[in-house]
Automatic annotation (TrEMBL), chain A:
<keyword id="KW-1278">Translocase</keyword>
<feature type="domain" description="ABC transporter">
    <location>
        <begin position="15"/>
        <end position="230"/>
    </location>
</feature>
<dbReference type="GO" id="GO:0016887">
    <property type="term" value="F:ATP hydrolysis activity"/>
</dbReference>
<keyword id="KW-0547">Nucleotide-binding</keyword>
<keyword id="KW-1003">Cell membrane</keyword>
<dbReference type="InterPro" id="IPR003593">
    <property type="entry name" value="AAA+_ATPase"/>
</dbReference>
<keyword id="KW-0472">Membrane</keyword>
<dbReference type="InterPro" id="IPR003439">
    <property type="entry name" value="ABC_transporter-like_ATP-bd"/>
</dbReference>
<dbReference type="InterPro" id="IPR027417">
    <property type="entry name" value="P-loop_NTPase"/>
</dbReference>
Automatic annotation (TrEMBL), chain B:
<dbReference type="InterPro" id="IPR035906">
    <property type="entry name" value="MetI-like_sf"/>
</dbReference>
<feature type="transmembrane region" description="Helical">
    <location>
        <begin position="238"/>
        <end position="260"/>
    </location>
</feature>
<feature type="transmembrane region" description="Helical">
    <location>
        <begin position="143"/>
        <end position="162"/>
    </location>
</feature>
<dbReference type="Pfam" id="PF00528">
    <property type="entry name" value="BPD_transp_1"/>
</dbReference>
<keyword id="KW-0812">Transmembrane</keyword>
<keyword id="KW-0813">Transport</keyword>
<dbReference type="GO" id="GO:0005886">
    <property type="term" value="C:plasma membrane"/>
</dbReference>
<keyword id="KW-1003">Cell membrane</keyword>
<comment type="similarity">
    <text>Belongs to the binding-protein-dependent transport system permease family.</text>
</comment>
């Protein structure tokens, strides 16, 4: 089991991972992986299916106790999953307030206002659209004022237009929180990573196989980043470099 | 080809006809039972259907009024209802406690579930001779039989409901830092509720059946006693009144559970698949 020692994280970092390994049977998914996430940094983690992206995220979320190595996170960790995972028997506001100390409903209401969902606060989750449900899930994560926000492909099931709106929303929220919150976005969408992240990581062979910093100002246009895009696609094993 | 305006008119006409259909069928569906009742009455009045086989509807209705007026029927219902309620409460509490213990812990599962799965195969009406030996012929064996009949469907469904809760929601709860108690209260129990209510309906159905069977044996009060006593005197009218009351009580309890379902599962009703 990975040790979780918040005190071991350097002040400029939110998360520190050293030699993290995870095997399922005799298949090694994470192999002595090292990673630091800076305070307020927006990191995108790319990788092919089965490359261990979700395994790493689950380890950071504290959902996987069968890892070995060293893993330390400073502050609260919050997760927005691919499926919104709202409790269908609790109204939206109560989903957001779940697990908060007494008086959390006011904060939950603020969080819903931030994601533009005030009008649906008293709705049942099953009546929400995909985008609304994902926004509620984001509000539920943000209301905890996390030091590290983990996003596990939260936009992949949304239609293209909703996804663009959600990208803007995530960047706005991250800005609004004075960039105190580090974000780790797990995705298989290279464009999404390029538009959002400060740093893009590619997971391969159980380790960080590649990393690129993106200094470009936001909002970005993908047409300005084609060179890096081709490079990342190459790292992911997609030969598209001749365009 | 018809014009759009005409199409609209036709559609409206069709909608109106469709709207009228349910009420019409509702009334139509009453016709055949009424005809059957009338035929039954006619057969009885003409002597075709002798009263020692079955009494005439009118006679049965009169008997129901008499039995109610002289207190026999209310009294019998009271006694039977008490048996069902006592048996149900005992069986339901035992079932829910066992299902929680088995559903929420590995140790509980290993200790409780195997014997429960084995015992469910037991035809429990066959236990009556043993129950008479153990508990005599008083109220206890009747209440015990109802409790046993209630316990199994409720246990099985509650346990399956707990185990069937979406693992993704439990994970989400853990990332929200919910402790074990909060996880059980906010995620696991509400998640198991729909299946538990299915079990509740089944077990209430079984409760009335178990009562009917139990009351055939050495009852000295209650609906079963009333029916058995009537058989001795070939009072088929009283027997039918007893049967009608049994079904009415079964229907009422079912309606109560439906009401509970509608209120407790409002979140699910809100979801209307297109």
């Amino acid at each position: 089991m990975a040790t979780r020692l918040p005190t071991r994280v350097a002040p400029e970092h939110t998360a520190r991972i050293r030699g993290l390994s995870r095997a399922f049977g005799d298949r090694t998914v994470l192999d002595r992986l090292d990673l630091d996430i800076e305070r307020g940094e927006f990191v995108a983690l790319l990788g092919r299916s089965g490359s261990g992206k979700s395994t790493l995220l689950r380890a950071l979320a504290g959902l996987d106790r069968d890892t070995t190595g060293e893993l330390a996170v400073d502050g609260t960790v919050a997760v927005a999953f691919q499926e919104p995972r709202l409790l269908p028997w609790k109204r939206v506001i109560d989903n957001v307030a779940l697990g908060l100390p007494p008086g959390g409903r006011e904060r939950a209401r603020d969080a819903l206002r931030e994601v533009g969902l005030t009008a649906r606060a008293d709705a049942w989750p099953l009546t929400l659209s995909g985008g609304e449900a994902q926004r509620a899930s984001l509000a539920r994560a943000l209301v905890r004022e996390p030091g590290l926000l983990l996003l596990d492909e939260p936009f992949s099931a949304l239609d293209a237009l909703t996804r663009i709106t959600m990208h803007r929303l995530v960047l706005d929220l991250w800005d609004h929180h004075a960039r105190d919150t580090s974000v780790l976005l797990v995705t298989h969408d290279v464009d999404e990573a390029l538009l959002l992240a400060d740093r893009v990581l590619v997971l391969g062979e159980g380790r960080i196989a590649h990393e690129s910093r993106i200094e470009a100002e936001r909002p970005r246009r993908i047409t300005d980043l084609t060179a890096l895009r081709d490079r990342l696609l190459g790292e992911l094993g997609v030969e598209e470099g001749t365009r | 080809m018809s014009s759009p305006a005409l199409d609209l008119g036709a559609a409206r006409q069709a909608a109106r006809t469709r709207a009228r259909v349910p009420r019409a069928t509702g009334l139509q569906r009453l016709i055949s039972p009424i005809v059957l009742l009338l035929l039954w009455q006619a057969a009885s009045s003409s002597g075709l259907l002798p009263e020692r086989l079955i009494a005439a509807p009118v006679k049965i209705a009169g008997t129901a009024v008499d039995l109610t007026a002289d207190g026999t029927l209310p009294n019998a219902i009271g006694v039977s209802l008490q048996r069902v309620v006592e048996g149900f409460v005992i069986g339901a509490v035992a079932a829910v406690v066992l299902a929680l213990a088995a559903g929420l812990s590995r140790v509980g599962e290993n200790a409780i579930d195997p014997p429960m799965q084995m015992l469910r195969a037991l035809p429990f009406y066959g236990l009556i001779p043993l129950f008479i030996l153990w508990f005599g012929i008083g109220e206890t064996p009747k209440v015990a039989l109802v409790a046993l009949g209630v316990a199994f469907p409720l246990y099985l469904n509650t346990y399956a409901g707990i185990r069937g809760v979406d693992g993704g929601l439990i994970e989400a709860g853990r990332t929200l830092r919910l402790g074990r108690t909060a996880l059980i209260r906010h995620v696991i129990l509400p998640g198991a509720l729909p299946q538990t209510l299915v079990g509740l309906r089944q077990s209430l159905g079984v409760a009335w059946l178990a009562l009917i069977v139990a009351e055939q044996v050495n009852a000295d009060a209650g609906l079963g006693y009333m029916i058995n006593d009537a058989r001795e005197f070939m009072r088929t009218d009283v027997i039918v009144v007893g049967l009608v009351v049994y079904s009415a009580l079964g229907l009422i309890t079912d309606a109560v559970v439906r009401l509970i379902e509608r209120r407790a599962l409002a979140w699910r009703r809100a979801f209307q698949p297109a």
